[in-house]
Amino acid sequence: MGYHMRWCSFVSGHGLMQLSSMSKISKACRSRWNTKIYFDRLYFRLFSVDHKPVTRCALLLLICIIHSIGGAHSASAQVTTEEWLAQDNATGNWGDLRDRLNQAGIDPELNFTTDLLANPIGGMRQNGAYAGLWYGSTTFDLEKLAGLKGLEFYVGAAWAQGRDLSGDDVGNFFGVAQVFNGRVLRLADVYLQQSLFEDRLTASIGRLVAGNAFAAADAYGNYVNAAVNGNPTGILANVPSFTTSPFSQWGAQVTVAPTQEFYVSAGIYNADADVQEDAYHGLDFTFNPQDGVLGVVEVGYKPNSPAIFNGMPGQYSFGAYFDTTDYQFLNNPQRSRSENYGIYAIAQQMVYQESAGSDEGLTLWGTLTVNPDSEINTAPVTVVGGAIYEGLLPQRPKAATAIGIAYASFSDDLPGQTYELALEANHRFQVGEWIYFQPTVQYIINPNGGGIPDALVAGAEISIDF
Length: 466
Known about the structure:
By secondary structure, the protein is of the alpha+beta class. Helix content is 20%, strand content 40%.
């Protein structure tokens, strides 16, 4: 907890969370009564004073943590800090209510993730920015609730906050803060999912996020830069109808996995980008396939044989997509073409394992996206790759150290724009099962293809599961 409190105090520039107050808060959390006193005081300071957004968010985060401590201590006076951090969620089991809901077939989840970043060198101007995302969801197991075997209903919503450091200050292509998703409260994905034949066939229909089913890899989540987290920018920047969370479209998708190693997925989605506008808050349910549809196909292989890298986990996938909506020519917006297409390839492989079956070790990964039509695609080719070592520090086996590099080649129809190169190094401190603190350093070379000074970006990402 100390890591992210110190960071929030530094970024906000206010004296509300000085280190001296941390000991007071720690003592206050020893009993439910003292926790309530500090919760009330912080709540008053949060809403009765005109704080900057960064400070307001930091205080809100502090309130939630203290309140969850109070809840844990009130449930059991013997709960230690180690036991609290070992829980799956910050707010615990809600007096066994969470377990009872899960047993009944209802699984609620809530996560808050924030990127607190600044560019002290380079870019269009030097500045700092906060970006935050609250994401809540509930999965209803309809087999438990209504006897409908293998059927689930899912609903999610998001509250996006903050500023876009890349768009406002750095001026680069690969967003430096993957958390930034605008400033809006919106309904996210809402769908039914049916699993059959021992999960060998899974089908979903409703308001879907294409990026949850396609062009994804476990490695992507280890980075703060948005080059691949949550899906490759090389797809999202060129094909807006390919949605990533929390944006969704009407659609249907199916995955067939005849074995544990192989799978084939296909999806088709409404491709009207207008329904994703913030003004609609995710509530524009227009279904107009006559204006365009997006189709995606992916084949994947997840080796599970001792003959391949000694049985260490890996993932290899290849996909293609086709969109029938209108795309304007880059050099002449008066002209358009009613189709766009592209392909992608993803490889992720653990190459060193500290012990058999362990998650600790070195994983290498790479991603290639190609959108051949340079007349309508901003970045026809992107190449992204990196390395992740989990457990590099013996005393922190769940911590992960990552480096990454992202390259984008811009269309010849964009004068003065050639390429952008983004570098990132970070380390994720897994403070507890439900919280991590991730300092990051990024260096952006030739931002947006040229004309903007190279930029250094530094900061941290914090994520909490409530």
